[in-house]
Amino acid sequence: MPTASAEPDRRRPRVLVVVAHPDDETFGCGAAIAHAVGEGAEVVVCSATAGEQGEDLSGGPSHDLARRRTAELAAAGAALGVGRTTVLGFGDSGWDGEPAPGSLCAVPFTDVVRAVAGLLGELVPDVVVTMDPAGSDGHRDHARIGAATTVATRQLAGAGAPVRLYHWFLPRSLMDDWARHMASLDPDSVYLGTEMGRPDADTTTVLDARRHVARVRRAIVRHASQRSPYEGIPGELEEAFLGTSHLRRVIPAWRGGPPETSLFG
């Protein structure tokens, strides 16, 4: 469900962020979005699903979770400075087990690519940011939407569009620090059974959003039905997650050298 937005100003760079569930844009890509907005970009966020298989801390009726999470996506996007949010409408596959018919991991991969390609054709973004197709955070929906977005963006680039593509990920060293703290706070967390994060050496781009941390925190609060993964961790570690974003540039291919500090070259 798109949120209302003003007529875009094409003198500004446009960034499309494609994630799997409402809250991925904030808990994961929040620093990248805040950094892009801070550099004057117009940002559009697309979630593949409404996240109806997620937890629900809101106390509302369970059948209404998709609507609530879609509203939270829009509210968090506004807090981050996003101009528009939209949901593709695939079902949430959940963490494991047989994915339900119509869910992101159950529908044909080509259907997911086609849906993302349609949005790319509408927006023609300058930059696309999506989740790590390698599934380095352990969630199958994240890997699925990352892979589909990569294929769709390669198609757009192959047609001559000067688009840049980035995979957002968490560096393994940071995830190791997080896991050590989580083991004492929530030893039953599903995330603790998975090796998470990519090798730090895969980083091509580091975005410093420390001056925007308050904005990211405001967005986190908007996801009232969900538990923040940063709840209860030390302030210094929280700041590392919320104030810095690590990415791997895929298009144009990375040729080495010092990490970039911007999505716009």
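[next item in queue]
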Amino acid sequence: MSSAPTIRTVTLNPAVDEAIAAESLLLGGINRCALDAVDPGGKGVNASRVIHRLGRSTLALGFVAGVTGDFLRTALDAEGVPHAFESVDGLTRINVMLYERASSRRTRLYLPGATVPLARIDALKTALASAPAGSIVLLGGSLPPGLPETLYGDLVAWLHAHDVRTIVDTSGPPLAHALAARPLLIKPSLEEAEELLGRRLPDTASVVAAAREPQERGAAFVVISRGEDGAIGLDAEGAWEARPPAVTACSTVGSGDSMVAALAIALNEGLPFAEGLRLGSAAGAATAITRGTQLCDPHEIERLLGAVVVRKLEPLFGGAPHERPSEKR
């Protein structure tokens, strides 16, 4: 294990991910399917699983409910991933990833999740209060029913006041509110960035320009992932492009979570941003070649790492430097 601080992840709306396959989907009829995999899921949960697989210290936090929540805890125990989830009423959601063999079409069915009363966030803050100054907390995924869109922003501000750095991996209004609190890094997908900015991003130049906007609004690092087209990342020095090697993708479920886990490791250990992009691209590609809801194999990450191409696109551009929690006076 690395001597760097433990990376804590927060998944307010975790899931049990089921990957099923059918020859084709008959709407309104009976469909006989095969179960490919059942895995613990949710962006922060997946990030902790990858961080653990890469030999780093992590702690998964959040809320689980009912028998599906019990399954999630048991599955993480089986992998050796440390966790300290709070229990709430109801059931942790089940998300279904359906693959149709005849058409190679993939469909995702996401449920809303268990309700988390706002008052229970105090218990989460108590668990996060032990995070040392300068450490990283990764906030990931959708919000469960009943919580305000401003919550991620509130948590980022609260953690910032405790000198803890934050990564936010979410979308829509919760991401917009989080930006105002100045997280260290955000990692939207291309589709999530288009939603955030309200416009199409058809090429690399438009993605670079788009990434500047959330950086100007408060994020020190911005990474926009584009699947097989690679990722665009911005730091204080300018814009970078990372292109993974060509692979035959079996499922992209968890690829973005794997990338953000690797970026968290790089920032936590003070590695160059370009190396974080390289490791993140390899982790994302390694997850893409796994079936269903399964995540990357560390040996595959190592195999792919040297084939990732990272290049500088643009030099330093204008804008005030981002004040990190450890730099406050």
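[queue empty]
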